[in-house]
UniProtKB/TrEMBL annotation, chain A:
This is Nitrate ABC transporter permease. One of its GO terms (molecular function) is nitrate transmembrane transporter activity. It is a multi-pass membrane protein. Belongs to the binding-protein-dependent transport system permease family. It comes from Herpetosiphon geysericola. Keywords: Cell inner membrane, Cell membrane, Ion transport, Membrane, Transmembrane, Transmembrane helix, Transport. Residues 87-267 form the ABC transmembrane type-1 domain. GO terms for biological process: monoatomic ion transport.
């Protein structure tokens, strides 16, 4: 009897300890987030009070958000589509524009990073074009493409160019001299140099550029779709404002924010994976 | 192995007639680097002739330009004055004929040990079939004792093992001349000792890589490995102070050598030469 008492509780004890341990870890991770969210919600509630009902309360927004998410993919014609369809439309444009943008920026950045002469020629052009607000390109896209959604994609392409171009150039420019010397001594072909030395060496910088490009593209898409109309989260925000439903505007803002966060996390996860792989992990 | 070693000893003295064309001929070479408005002179009036089959060490204080000279032989740095002729042709660009082992290994960190060697073999040994290239890669990695580590990444290896990979990579392209830039400078004394012996072993066992030029800080290393030691004066504007012939028979046994009179004389001579 004495033995049983001795043995059984000890096992339970260890299971309990490990559960307590995990609960503690989860609580330590989540509690600051929850507290932060509570502070935001109370500030928001206060602002809604002070605005005298012009700003929707968090509770009103939450119930609208639940309603929107309950049927995200309904389609009742051109001006009445579910939030999921709008989100996918925006994501589709962002990825198309961003994809074209980085497909131009990465090879161009590799060239610029490899040639100081080319850098001197192209740098002033980039410095002039880079600070231009992405939406300033929208009319140009409209004039050439005669299509509002495509013009938005065009603006995203231009937007996505700069961070990736600048970071790729820097990454290639700072490839260690020793590695360049190795490629020369062992007479690496251009292709071998690019695939085995240049791209892996510059990859962290290129990934940072791609991440920054994606961040800006996601900001620009909402503004662009407000101008272009039709579909997308930007259109949804503007349409909701015209229908005087600020609850829907706030809901859309939350969705835009969370999607942006997820996209960013995706890239940082990819970056960590690549770094681990380069150092011989898995 | 032994007959091969004996054969090498005789290369310098007997087989090669004195009038044989040297492998490398450096005459009147100088190096200037731009600095501010003017130029700063690193090296001046370097005269050095290296015969095929020799093991040469460059020794001198930091900043004396010995690494610069090695880089110029490699073709990685341009010469400012003078001429540098390798195997009858002026040196204009890097070439696998003058393969280099760098102080900090210079392995590609994202490639495995095997791939690091294979990329060099695949790039240079174009007359070999794919199977032969793979066999060669396996063989050189086995020679430096890394057969069990071929799938590891450089970051997972110790400094000594990384430098073994770099040495294997250089030998795998069968260079006429092997250039080593302080190859063991970053290693502990024990690892350094065993790598010195492995280097000698590879050099004497490989009929194609006849000539070695090595930059070093270490007097004992220079004596143990070299046929001739090139002593540099202090920089800037350094030049060759003297060239010492190491008249010790090969194969050399470190332990018995270190107690010999010749060794001590050379050591004292070098110490004095470097400290005045």
């Amino acid at each position: 009897m004495a033995q049983m008492i001795d043995i059984i509780p000890r096992r339970e004890h260890s299971a309990l300890t490990s559960m307590r341990y995990w609960l503690k870890i989860i609580w330590q991770t989540l509690s600051p987030i929850i507290i932060g969210m509570l502070i935001l919600a109370s500030l928001w509630q206060g602002a809604a009070w002070l605005s005298g009902g012009n700003l929707p309360t968090p509770f009103a927004t939450a119930s609208t958000l639940r309603e929107l998410l309950s049927d995200p993919f309904y389609d009742n014609g051109p001006n009445d589509k579910g939030i999921g369809i709008q989100l996918l439309a925006s994501l589709g444009r962002v990825f198309t524009g961003w994809g074209i943008g980085i497909a131009i920026a990465i090879p161009l950045g590799m060239l610029l990073g490899s040639s100081a002469r080319l850098r001197k020629m192209i740098a002033p052009v980039i410095e002039i074009l880079r600070p231009v607000s992405p939406l300033a390109w929208y009319p140009l896209g409209l004039a050439v493409l005669h299509n509002a959604p495509k013009a938005v994609v065009f603006a995203i392409v231009i937007t996505s160019l700069w961070p990736t171009l600048v970071n790729t150039t820097m990454g290639v420019q700072h490839i260690p001299a020793d590695l360049k010397a190795v490629s020369k001594v062992f007479r690496f072909s251009r292709w071998r140099y690019v695939s085995k030395v240049l791209l892996p060496a510059a990859f962290p910088a290129i990934l940072t550029g791609m991440r920054l490009s994606m961040g800006i593209a996601w900001m620009v898409i909402v503004a662009g779709e407000m101008l272009a109309g039709g579909t997308g989260l930007g259109f949804f925000v503007w349409d909701s404002w015209n229908a005087l439903s600020l609850e829907r505007v706030m809901s859309a803002i939350l969705i835009i924010g969370i999607t942006g966060l997820c996209l960013d996390r995706l890239f940082s996860l990819l970056g960590q994976r690549m770094a681990a792989w380069q150092e011989g992990g898995h | 192995m032994a007959p091969r070693l004996l054969a090498r000893t005789s290369v310098n003295s007997a087989i090669l007639p004195m009038e044989a064309a040297p492998l490398l001929e450096i005459s009147g070479v100088g190096k200037n680097y731009p600095s501010g408005q003017g130029q700063i002179n690193i090296l001046r009036e370097i005269e050095l002739t290296i015969q095929s089959g020799e093991f040469i060490s460059f020794i001198g204080h930091s900043g004396c330009g010995k690494s610069s000279l090695l880089n110029m032989i490699a073709g990685l740095t341009s010469i400012s004055t003078g001429t540098m002729v390798f195997d009858g042709k002026p040196i204009e660009a890097p070439s696998p004929e003058r393969a280099m082992v760098f102080q900090h290994y210079s392995l590609l960190p994202w490639l495995s040990v095997y791939q690091n060697v294979y990329e060099a073999v695949d790039s240079v040994q174009t007359e070999l079939s794919k199977a032969e290239r793979k066999a060669l890669t396996d063989a050189v990695l086995a020679r430096v004792g890394l057969s069990n580590h071929v799938h590891k990444k450089p970051m997972q290896l110790s400094g000594g093992m990384r430098q073994r990979v770099a040495i294997a990579r250089a030998f795998a392209v069968h260079p006429r001349m092997l250039l080593l830039d302080e190859p063991f400078g970053a290693l502990d004394a024990l690892t350094r000792g065993s790598l010195q012996e492995e280097l000698l072993d590879l050099w004497s066992g490989d009929a194609r890589t006849e000539t070695v030029v090595m930059v070093t800080h270490d007097i004992d290393e220079a004596i143990y490995l070299s046929d001739r030691i090139v002593v540099f004066s202090d920089g800037p504007s350094a030049t060759i102070k003297e060239i010492i012939t190491v008249d010790l028979p090969r194969p050399r046994d470190k332990q018995s050598l270190m107690t010999s009179q010749t060794w001590n004389n050379l050591r004292t001579h070098l110490l004095l030469s470097l400290h005045c």
